[in-house]
Write a structure and sequence with these properties.
This protein is mainly alpha-helical. It is 74% helix and 0% strand.
C-alpha cells in the first residue's frame, strides 16, 4: 500500500484509485486496534472528501501539496501497521 502512495505522488494513479485502495485495505483489516482504525479513517476521509469535491468541480489534476498532510499521516499509519504485522508474523525476537 505504501507503493500506492508513492504511485499517487508520482501521478501514476489517480486520487480515486488511491482512495479506493485505502478503503479496501481498511475493510480487509479486521483486527486492528480502535485507535489505529479511527486515525486511519480520519485521514482517509480527508482524501475522500477532496476527491469528491474534485469530481463535483470537474478538477482532474489536484496538486499533491493540498494532500500532503493526510498522505503523510496515512503513510505513518501504514508503516506502524506493517511493523505490527511483521512482529505478529515473526513472533517476538
Amino acid at each position: 500500500m505504501l507503493q500506492r502512495l508513492v504511485a499517487f505522488e508520482m501521478k501514476s494513479i489517480s486520487l480515486g484509485q488511491l482512495v479506493s485502495g485505502l478503503e479496501a485495505l481498511n475493510s480487509a483489516l479486521q483486527e486492528v486496534d480502535t485507535y489505529w482504525s479511527t486515525a486511519f479513517l480520519a485521514q482517509w476521509s480527508v482524501l475522500e472528501d477532496v476527491h469528491a469535491d474534485a469530481l463535483d468541480r470537474e478538477i482532474n489534476d489536484i496538486p499533491v501539496s493540498l494532500l500532503e498532510r493526510p498522505l503523510e499521516a496515512i503513510e505513518r499509519l501504514l508503516s506502524s501497521a506493517l511493523q505490527k504485522f511483521e512482529w505478529v508474523g515473526d513472533g517476538p525476537q
